[in-house]
Amino acid sequence: MSSIKVMLIDDNPANNLICRTLIKMNNFSEHIEEFLDAQAAFRRLEELSKQDPEKLPDLIFLDLNMPLMDGWEFLDCYKKLPESFINQCKVFILTSSIYQQDIQRAAEHSYIVDLLSKPLTEELLNVIYRTKFLKEENYK
Asked: Which of 126, 108, 116 is nearest to 60 (CA)?
């Protein structure tokens, strides 16, 4: 399996289950952290950035519509993390939103790679892998 570290942030456990299963089935990653709460995910990123930066994720799949802290609020906090991490980590918004304003807003954030429509698919994983990460022999 790939050594890519993935963080899933979505308040819907079923969406996280689908993503985790798809990621593992396609040998995309064996290092997956899931969060149902964006605040908890951000606290984890803060903790890792201070204590164990090697465990920071390489890729984040972020939902936009969540209670307590939505995806946009998460991103407002995210940009305060160390620049070296922000430059290394690939953030993909994974949402069911079809609002043009979300698409435009995502394009304004330099650290958002893309806004993807749910559900995550094998094809999307392959495109992400081919275009954003070095190829590895053991990946499809």
From this structure: 116
The overall pTM is greater than 0.85: yes
Beta-ladder partners of 117: 95
Question: How far apart are the C-alpha atoms of 83 and 78, rounded to whole Å?
Answer: 10
Nearest to 25 by CA among 90, 117, 92, 120: 120
CATH number of residue 90's parent domain: 3.40.50.2300
CB 113, CB 90: distance < 8 Å? yes
pLDDT(136) > 60: no
Q: Which residues constitute the domain of residue 126?
A: 5-132
Residue 71's SS3 state is helix
From 81, 17, 93, 76, select the one nearest 44 (Cα to Cα).
81
> In the predicted model, what is the mean pLDDT of the chain?
89
